[in-house]
Specification:
456 residues; alpha+beta; seven-stranded antiparallel beta sheet; five-stranded antiparallel beta sheet; globular; binds flavin-adenine dinucleotide
Length: 456
């Protein structure tokens, strides 16, 4: 039998096969980062696993580049390519909760908003990201840092099994019991090993939480970050929180005269007993008097959508990332210099804590190697106008350079820029060689290379 032709693909697929001449093409080729402007030859909006198999076969048999798209949030734009094939899982967003086992199985095209919405009704949740529109797929496969990380580990620590279509078009299940090597590699190795069509997660009893947002004067950076580095060491693990540089948006709890000014902020989520939330939030009044604050109970899914309006699709994105064991005085000095220069309301810098449950997992238990890091820092440049590209990318690069001497060699793969592919090996440290051997077994031809690539 010859190669799968485009006509055969159209015949085989239950979902949409979108070509360059189709009316939906221009909309369908867009990814979240508007800086990425690529023209694939075909976009397959898969309806089911069979469609994914067909898409993988079509790309491999025709020697075409293949991009896998879950939530489309990859800042380097790995969810698309020029001239190749895009498998877009957007239509595959079903979630089935098993309340007895406290698990959920979610299809590869789910966003965290889809996922949290489905699990909330059962009073259950797992670690996800802090933005509702991010895909569960890319986020989980690279790590997964969010409000629940200190209590329940990374998203990938909560992964129980994955359904995967491998480079040869086969369907396999990866778990602690089946294809254990693939399961190990998937938990940190990103999209290098196959298309994950569904994820099975461990859930935890989390329903309503208490959220806290505190904006402190910008001349209190030293006080706030010094407080943060000490407090995070022994703070209860039900408390997820991180400092951020943020230009004040026009929100009801922010005095009008403060809108548009840069602040050092702390964002917090108390996922323990609801009546203890107010008391836990009082800790964040210690470093300095807040210019504005909001403390309120809300559904867990609501805090994960709180910042979505600031980050619609279509912004320009350029990000840099680093890990650190300590938040040193030198790092705080760099934050004091560059944080207040945050150029626009959409841009930010976050220092996420990854201590607690995430750090109790051995560094070789999954392919996510930086279990000794206590902090994952992201400098997230996000702005609307392409005319400002140079100014904004310069802020990110200069800030990153100033932090570099105070950081570990690697950074979180999911926060990396497109020009960071030289750092892939550093991101996996001693796990890298095992990842290479598993890549050779499951994808010797490197079909899955539109990612932070592990070369076979
Ligand atoms: C606004 C914003 C907020 C973010 N917040 C957080 C956060 O709070 N915590 C955090 O940890 N990260 C966060 N991230 C980073 C995020 O984890 C990565 O961007 C992640 O790659 C996004 O996954 P996705 O599925 O949305 O992206 P996509 O662009 O669809 O995919 C990203 C990568 O994963 C691969 N991939 C996607 N789907 C599959 C699949 N089904 N099978 C195999 N490979 C697949 C792709 O090929 C690509 O290499 C954020 C990113 C953005 C832009």
């Amino acid at each position: 039998m010859g190669n799968l032709t485009i006509d055969m693909l159209r015949e085989r697929a239950h979902g949409q096969v979108i070509m360059t001449t189709d009316a939906e093409y221009d909309e369908a080729r867009k990814v979240y980062n508007a800086m990425i402007d690529k023209r694939p030859s075909v976009i397959i909006r898969t309806a089911d696993v069979t469609d994914v198999m067909a898409g993988v076969d079509y790309a491999r048999e025709n020697g075409l580049d293949l991009s896998i798209r879950g939530g489309s949030h990859s800042v380097p734009g790995f969810g698309t390519c020029d001239g190749g094939v895009v498998i877009d899982l957007v239509r595959m967003n079903g979630v089935r909760v098993d309340p007895k086992r406290q698990t959920a199985r979610a299809e590869g095209g789910c966003t965290w908003a889809d996922f949290n919405h489905a699990t909330y009704a059962f009073g259950l949740a797992t670690t996800g990201g802090i933005i509702g529109s991010t895909g569960i797929a890319g986020l989980t496969l690279g790590g997964g840092i969010g409000y629940l990380t200190r209590g329940f580990g990374l998203s990938l620590d909560n992964l129980l099994s994955a359904d995967v279509v491998t480079a040869d078009g086969r369907f396999v299940v990866a778990s602690e019991k089946e294809n254990e090597d693939l399961f190990w590699a998937l938990r940190g190795g990103g999209g290098n090993f196959g298309v994950v069509t569904s994820f099975e997660y461990q859930l935890h009893p989390v329903k309503d939480i208490v959220a806290g947002i505190f904006f402190y004067p910008i001349d209190k950076v030293r006080e706030v970050l010094s407080f943060y580095r000490e407090f995070v060491k022994n703070a209860p693990e039900q408390l997820g929180f991180f400092p951020a540089f943020q230009i004040a948006p026009p929100l009801p709890f922010i005095p009008e005269k403060e809108v548009g000014k840069p602040f050092i902020a702390i964002v917090a989520c108390w996922a323990g007993a609801l009546d203890k939330g107010e008391k836990e939030m009082a800790s964040f009044r210690k470093p300095a008097p807040a210019v504005a604050e909001m403390v309120a109970p809300m559904p867990y899914y609501a805090i994960n959508g709180l910042f979505d309006p600031l980050l619609p699709p279509g912004l320009q994105h350029y990000w840099k990332a680093s890990f650190a064991t300590e938040l040193t005085d030198g790092a705080i000095a760099a934050h004091m210099e560059f944080g207040p220069k945050v150029p626009v309301v959409n841009s930010t810098m976050h220092i996420y804590p990854i201590n607690g449950a995430a750090s109790r997992v051995a560094s070789d238990a999954t392919s996510f190697a930086y279990r000794d890091a206590n902090f994952a820092t992201v400098i997230a440049g996000m702005w609307p106008d392409p005319a400002d590209n140079e100014k904004n990318t310069k802020w990110v690069k200069d800030y990153y350079k100033a932090l570099e001497p105070h950081s570990l060699a690697g950074g979180y793969v999911n926060f990396m820029a497109g020009d960071d592919d030289g750092r892939v090996k550093e991101n996996y440290k001693e796990n890298y060689s095992r990842l290479v051997s598993i890549k050779r077994k499951y994808d010797p031809g490197n079909l899955f290379h539109m990612n932070q690539n592990i070369q076979p």
